[in-house]
Specification:
The chain is built from six helices and seven strands; from the N terminus they run βααββββααβαβα. The protein is globular and about 40 Å long. It is an alpha+beta fold. The longest helix has 12 residues.
Length: 164
């Protein structure tokens, strides 16, 4: 299975960071495998804070609070679903880089509104159905992905569903 990139946007400048423990739990359960994760947050002004969460050792593995979610979500597939004028070339470059391309992160983070945050994930869902089930209760918007159109739509539908 190929890795994918998924960028989730949250209302609240700490929400993306708060999700890390949940994603770490998914990784521990074998639901996802993360290769990289980055948090971007915009406070009330124009200042954007970007936090790299990956530690590189030998093989590139995710460490830190861990995420284990989305990135690489669901199966793999061609690049698609770019948002807000993000350039396809920058996105493709992000997949070739050791982790998520810094230029792509900066460009995409510029789209954050004050008081919001984003979680950039690179990896794969080892159990796509379980991944979506675990993700369903969380409120996030899909900003952009490298998933196929079908996979991206499935992710968006899951995040839009109300929990019973």
């Amino acid at each position: 299975m190929d890795s994918n990139i998924v960028v989730l946007r949250f209302e609240g400048e700490n929400q993306a960071e708060n999700m890390l423990s949940i994603f770490d739990d998914m990784q521990e359960k074998g639901i996802v495998t993360l290769e990289d994760a980055v948090i971007a947050a915009r406070g009330p002004g124009d200042n954007i804070e970007i936090k790299q969460t990956q530690s590189v050792t030998g093989k590139y593995t995710f460490r830190g609070s861990g995420i284990g979610l989305l990135a690489g979500l669901l199966l793999g597939g061609p690049i698609g679903g770019l948002v807000g004028g993000t350039v396809v070339g920058a996105f493709a470059g992000a997949l070739k880089d050791v982790g998520i391309d810094d230029k792509f992160i900066r460009q995409t983070s510029e789209m954050l509104t004050p008081g919001s945050s984003a979680l950039f994930l690179m990896g794969r869902a080892d159990d796509p159905d379980k991944f979506l089930e675990e993700l369903r209760p969380f409120k996030a918007l899909v900003a952009t992905t490298s998933l196929s159109a079908e996979q991206e739509n499935r992710l968006k539908r899951t995040l839009a569903e109300e929990e019973l």
